[in-house]
Amino acid sequence: MRMEDRETYTCYPSYKTIGKALQMSKNTVMKYVRQLEEKELIETERTLVENREGALRNGNLMYKILPIKQAVDAFHRRQLYNYGRKK
Questions:
Q1: What Cα–Cα distance (Å) separates residue 52 from each residue in 44, 48, 62, 80?
Q2: pLDDT, tens digit, for every residue of 21-50?
């Protein structure tokens, strides 16, 4: 959240940058990013960057921090779904 643009709620840190800040490996960061997406706390979107030769390459993910109400609603949906499956 320290890197977040407060108007768009987005940021573009690399897995390496996040890992360095949290003292985690890239693979661990990737795992937790997926979990945050599953819990609907964040959305990610792939980006492209143009190199000096004009070729497009994959850029860092764009992270969007979602409203907490959305995460709470998603949690309740999962709980109801799991409750219904147990019966």
A1: 26, 13, 22, 51
A2: 999 999 999 999 999 999 999 999 999 999
